[in-house]
Every structure is written in structure tokens, then in C-alpha cells.
Write a structure and sequence with these properties.
This protein has about 240 residues and is α+β, with helices and mostly antiparallel strands. The protein has seven helices and seven strands; from the N terminus they run H-H-H-H-E-H-E-E-E-H-E-E-E-H.
């Protein structure tokens, strides 16, 4: 086997220097990278960042880093430098008081309930749904409606607006697609020749799609129930 020449070794070292600098530089606000997603995933696992990792370091991630630094007794600068990263990925990394039910987003301001639905379990709703199906949802407080198209299902339903007009209606209900607001809705679920009116909660998922939660649905964060969604569903459920 031939030995590496000194020139070849120097070339390797020259190429590795930028990577080494990047690895040692703090992960901070404004960065968009894979290492941000890793930090977000770790913060999420510990309970400081109750959202999907996106790879984008914004205000929410900065606040989560500061929350961790506070719990770990570190300087709260909101940047994940060498000391913070070492503590973050340590086996004994601190965690906040973490209940098995988390509020993943914020409920938009609401008025009185105008439309009510039934508390139909997600397991039953799921049997009636098929990708490509159109579902009409009515805002429980405004009484306005829009149509969504089912994309897929997991712990809850993932949908997209059917038309530009439907997207505009959702914007009025929820604000921007990354607003993380929820609202209470009543969804029309086809069931053979008839249909059911199911109490539900609706929110943007941050990717231009919407999530529709029903009674017993779970979130994308470790399959945990979403406390906000449950409260909204209860608020528009027939009693």
C-alpha cells in the first residue's frame, strides 16, 4: 500500500479546517442546517421544544435553548455553544417538569360556540376516511366552512385546502401557515349513505398542510395527546 504524500495530507487538512470550525461554532438564531434539527430533536426529547424539528433556528428554538440553559444552570444567551451542547447531550441532561399531556400550540381567540358536533373517537373516524376524500369543516365559533382534501393519516388526519378560496378561509381562521394556532371545528364525516358531525380541532402543521384532531387523536410529538386540541374538541362537543 502506498503511503499518503505530505502534499495529500496537507490538502485533507485544508479541506477539514472549515468543517472543524463549523462544528465548534455555536448553533444560533438565523441558522438553517441539519445540526439545528439535531439540537431541536434533543430539546424536544427533553421537553423544552414541543414542536417538530425543522432545521431552522428561530425565536422558538432560541427560547427553548434558554429554557434548557436555565434548567442546567448555564449562561442564558440562547446559543448552543460547546458548553451548552455538552450539557444538552449528556446522559444526565436536565428536563423541565414534563406531563404526559402537552400543549403543542396556542389556541386562537374565540367567541361563543355556534356549531356543535359529536365526540366520535378517532379510531372510528379513521375507518371512514380514505386519502383523496374531501371533508367539509365548519368553524365552531364563526359558522363559516371550507373543504379540505385528506392526504394521509397517523395519530390524526393530515389534509390540504381544496381550493385557493379554502386556503384563504383557513388563513382567516388560523393566520399564517406557521402561526401554530388551533381552532375548534365540526367535521362532516361520510358514513355510507349518511354522515356524522364530529367535533374536532384544526391547525396548520407548518408545512402548508393542516392537521385535524378528533376525540382520542395523538400528536406527532412522541404520540402524546395534545391538551389544547382536546380542550377545543370538548368545547364544541354536544352534551
Amino acid at each position: 500500500m502506498k503511503r499518503a504524500t505530505p502534499i495529500f495530507i496537507l490538502i485533507l487538512l485544508f479541506c477539514a479546517l472549515p468543517l472543524a470550525r463549523a462544528a465548534k461554532s455555536p448553533v444560533r438564531n438565523g441558522e438553517d442546517s441539519a445540526r439545528v434539527a439535531v439540537v431541536q430533536a434533543r430539546l424536544s426529547a427533553l421537553g423544552f421544544f414541543p414542536y417538530r424539528p425543522t432545521g431552522n433556528f428561530g425565536t422558538l428554538t432560541q427560547n427553548a435553548v434558554m429554557g434548557f440553559q436555565r434548567a442546567a444552570g448555564l449562561w442564558e444567551d440562547g446559543e448552543a455553544g460547546e458548553e451548552t451542547l455538552s450539557a444538552l447531550f449528556a446522559a444526565d441532561a436536565p428536563a423541565p417538569p414534563f406531563a404526559p399531556r402537552v400543549a403543542l400550540t396556542y389556541s386562537a381567540p374565540q367567541g361563543g360556540v355556534a356549531v356543535y358536533g359529536d365526540a366520535i373517537p378517532w379510531a372510528e373516524v379513521q375507518k371512514e376516511l380514505k386519502p383523496g376524500m374531501e371533508i367539509t369543516v365548519t368553524h365552531a365559533h364563526h359558522g363559516t366552512s371550507c373543504t379540505l382534501v385528506l392526504i394521509d393519516m397517523g395519530g390524526h388526519a393530515h389534509l390540504t385546502p381544496n381550493t385557493d378560496a379554502d386556503a384563504q378561509t383557513l388563513n382567516k381562521w388560523l393566520g399564517r401557515t406557521n402561526s401554530f394556532y388551533k381552532c375548534a371545528v365540526v367535521a362532516i364525516i361520510p358514513r355510507g349513505q349518511s354522515s356524522d358531525r364530529a367535533a374536532a380541532a384544526l391547525l396548520w402543521n407548518g408545512e402548508g398542510r393542516v392537521c385535524l384532531y378528533f376525540f382520542g387523536s395523538s400528536s406527532d410529538i412522541f404520540g402524546l395527546p395534545d391538551a389544547d386540541a382536546e380542550q377545543l374538541i370538548f368545547s364544541c362537543t354536544k352534551r
